[in-house]
Amino acid sequence: MRGHFPEPPDPLTAPSRSRRPDLQELPHRLRRWVVATLGSGIAHSATQTGGFSPGAACRLVLNNGERAFLKAVSLTANREAAALHRREALTASSLPPTIGAPALLSVFDDGEWVGLLMSDVNGRHLAQPWRADELELVMASLSRLHESVTPSPTSAIGSYAETHADQLGGWRRLAAAPPEGLDTWSRQHLDRLAGLESMWPTAVDGNTLLHADLRTDNMLLVGNDVVFVDWAWACTGAAWVDAVAFAPSVAMQGGPPPQWLLDRCSQAAAADPEAVTTVVAAVAGYFTEQALLPSPANLPSLREFQAQQGHHARSWLRERTGWR
Ligand SMILES: Nc1ncnc2c1ncn2[C@@H]1O[C@H](COP(=O)(O)OP(=O)(O)O)[C@@H](O)[C@H]1O
Ligand SMILES: [Mg+2]
Description:
Blueprint: H1 28-38, E1 42-47, E2 56-62, E3 67-74, H2 79-94, E4 104-109, E5 113-118, H3 132-148, H4 160-163, H5 170-176, H6 184-197, H7 200-203, E6 208-210, E7 219-222, E8 225-228, E9 235-237, H8 240-252, H9 258-263, H10 273-291, H11 302-321
Antiparallel strand pairs: 1-2, 2-3, 3-5, 4-5, 6-9, 7-8
Helix pairs in contact: 5-6, 5-10, 6-10, 8-10, 8-11, 10-11
Bound molecules: adenosine-5'-diphosphate (ADP) and magnesium ion (MG).
């Protein structure tokens, strides 16, 4: 196996999960589909440790020398992850080929297992903790990407407001029923936070095709370019929303504070600062609410991962609002 792939990514890049299944552990029918679709047997499979779902993520080298990437999850392992794979199957098939995202080759779905075969990206994860020079590369790649998809070249992918209607609005729900464990600052300002956040559907509005799930585990460095993978949450909105939502994870993973990142998002300079603060509030509300929910199946440390991002998002919001 060694020699075929770069070293495995840093284990701190994503919440720990029950171990990802290897190719050999997947059902026969799914593996038969892989071989039939690719038209060749599999010489090597390397399970990738970055990423989020409790599903398989395998870089494949085929007997004919070609490569492919397989991700697959069962509804039994995690129903939401399977739903997200289905969502990714739809978004990936609508992405313009010009953005360099992995191409969707084929989809398997028998009601129990959902599998996606994609073109392989021969890259590596960015160093963790974050290095400033690599973050500059990420932001430069992101700006180029955003410029190339403004206006969004596809009408098949919906708006940020539609796509995230169930996720955002956390402060409103927290204010209605403040849960145990809510931090003092949030508790103190709950009603104001809910008010500030309420304009998020308008604040995110824009005509750029967004990734909307940027974190280090969804990026691979290829030369000096960063390729963005895992486009399950793709939608259209204001370009800087991608940077705002990404920034708390960067701070969590040893990078600079969120505002540093936003200052390197070329499209953010023209943004209305109040709209940005509204979206920072919505993102902080999302992480704060999620972190206090029970753990989902097979993702035991997700809540801690969200709690840390919530902490950084709230500090940022506190700075921007001046609310002490
Ligand atoms: N097309 C690809 N080619 C090579 N490696 C990939 C590809 N897509 C994802 N990966 C690797 O697999 C990991 C998990 O993939 P991802 O699509 O993010 O899965 P998840 O839905 O579990 O988050 C990524 O962190 C990356 O290292
Ligand atoms: Mg991912």
